[in-house]
């Protein structure tokens, strides 16, 4: 078990800034996930921690000791890759033994440790198989066994499940988390799959364009996003235009005065209102709001009934595209496109962000 501290880390490829001033603190034994869209710098950060890339500046500490100048093989980190990266010509047992042989561990101890680790990843019965005789999920568990058998202080995993089919991904997700808890190993996990990140992590760190946007618990990332990027990237969100005029503010679509929520915000700052689809209620026709609600009139674009719920897509008169996910209402499901509908939400469920891709939360 080991804590990881990263300070002011910066990495450029030529003049491409892949990582810009990364500061991260990872508690010992936790499962820490880097989440973000393609190209945001996740792999670069992981490989810089592993020592495969050299940072331009900044420090990386494990258990308080700086490692940023050590060669990769002396960093005491294990790494699991997306494409398994196991040796095709070696059996499962020999693949897992490899790192221990390199470290000149005595044969008896190798046999014992490899046996134990294969039990942990539930491949005990497969020790003599060759990689081509294994499924993708089993191959990835060999990759994991290889990384953990050397008992690294920190385990790094770069999209280890992304080459697997959906069902296996979900099974192996739970499996990985069980193993990580069992070993208590500090883990840094990379994914661009938000559901995977929310389901597995103690802390989710959302990255965009080489910059950390927010690092918090899964629930906090979802319920209290600190900026518009996080609100849009994690879970779905509707963004509605807001008209401000001095101290007065209302949704451009009509149906809601939001002056009070924005009362302390300086005039002139442009904002948008975010509403989660699952917090919206849909009714037919145009109806007025209760004081604790907003009621946004719209035209129905499409409604799809998908069993447990219905998805309702509408357009407001301000041109906002709005999606609601709600319990099926036969009256709404029966509506023709173009019909008048009203989206309602409780005021407490509205969040406000400054305009712009990464605009900060203002209310
Ligand atoms: N060897 C390299 N030389 C030049 N630019 C690179 C190199 N590796 C990565 N980059 C650039 O650095 C940025 C970050 O890349 P990185 O591979 O870290 O992203 P990522 O978040 O892992 O993306 P993905 O989800 O697609 O794997 C991208 O703009 C990428 O094009
Ligand atoms: Mg990557």
Short key terms for the protein model shown above:
363 residues; alpha+beta; Rossmann fold; OB fold (Dihydrolipoamide Acetyltransferase, E2P); 2 domains; 6-stranded mixed β-sheet; 5-stranded antiparallel β-sheet; 9 helices; 19 strands; 25% helix; elongated; binds adenosine-5'-triphosphate; binds magnesium ion
From the spread of the alpha carbons, the general shape counts as elongated
Largest sheet: 6 strands, mixed
Based on CA atoms alone, the radius of gyration comes out at 25 Å
Q: Whole-Å distance between the termini?
A: 39 Å
Low-confidence stretches: none
Class from helix and strand fractions: alpha+beta
Q: What is the fold named in CATH at topology level of the largest domain?
A: Rossmann fold
Strand content: 25-35%
Give the class-level CATH name of the largest domain.
Alpha Beta
Helix proportion: 10-25%
Q: Tally of extended strands? A: 19
Order of helices and strands: EEEHEEEHHHEHEHEEHHEEEEEEEHEE
Bound molecules: adenosine-5'-triphosphate, magnesium ion
Mean pLDDT: 95
Number of helices: 9
CATH homologous superfamily title of the largest domain: P-loop containing nucleotide triphosphate hydrolases
CATH architecture of the largest domain: 3-Layer(aba) Sandwich
Number of domains: 2
């Amino acid at each position: 078990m080991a804590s990881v501290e990263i300070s002011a880390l910066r990495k450029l490829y030529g003049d491409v800034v892949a990582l810009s001033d990364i500061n991260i603190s990872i508690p010992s034994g936790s499962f820490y996930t880097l989440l973000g869209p393609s190209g945001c710098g996740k792999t670069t950060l992981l490989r810089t921690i592993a020592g495969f890339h050299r940072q331009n500046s900044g420090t990386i500490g494990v258990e308080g000791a700086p490692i940023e100048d050590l060669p990769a093989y002396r960093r005491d980190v294990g790494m699991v890759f997306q494409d398994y990266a196991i040796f095709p010509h070696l059996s499962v047992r020999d693949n897992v033994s490899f790192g221990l042989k390199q470290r000149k561990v005595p044969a008896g101890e190798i046999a014992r440790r490899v046996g134990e680790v294969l039990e942990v990843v539930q491949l005990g019965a497969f020790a003599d198989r060759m990689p081509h005789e294994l499924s993708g999920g089993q191959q990835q568990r060999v990759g994991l066994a290889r990384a953990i058998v050397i008992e690294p202080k920190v385990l790094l995993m770069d999209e280890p499940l992304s080459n697997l089919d959906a069902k296996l991904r979900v099974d192996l997700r739970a499996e990985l988390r069980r193993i990580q808890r069992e070993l208590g190993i500090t883990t840094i996990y990379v994914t661009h799959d938000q559901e995977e990140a929310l389901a597995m992590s103690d802390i989710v760190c959302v990255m965009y364009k080489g910059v950390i946007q927010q690092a918090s618990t899964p629930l906090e990332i979802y319920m209290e996003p600190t900026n518009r990027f996080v609100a849009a990237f994690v879970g779905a969100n509707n963004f509605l235009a807001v008209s401000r005029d001095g101290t007065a503010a209302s949704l451009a679509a009509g149906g809601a005065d939001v002056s009070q929520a924005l009362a302390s915000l300086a005039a002139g700052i442009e904002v948008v209102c975010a509403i989660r689809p699952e917090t919206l209620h849909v009714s037919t026709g145009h109806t007025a709001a209760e004081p604790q609600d907003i009621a946004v009139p719209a035209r129905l674009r499409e409604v799809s009934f998908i069993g447990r719920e219905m998805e309702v897509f509408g357009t407001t008169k301000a041109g906002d595209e709005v999606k609601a996910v709600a319990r099926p209402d036969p009256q709404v499901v029966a509506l023709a496109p173009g019909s008048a509908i009203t989206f309602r939400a409780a005021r407490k469920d509205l969040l406000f962000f400054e305009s712009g891709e990464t605009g900060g939360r203002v209310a």
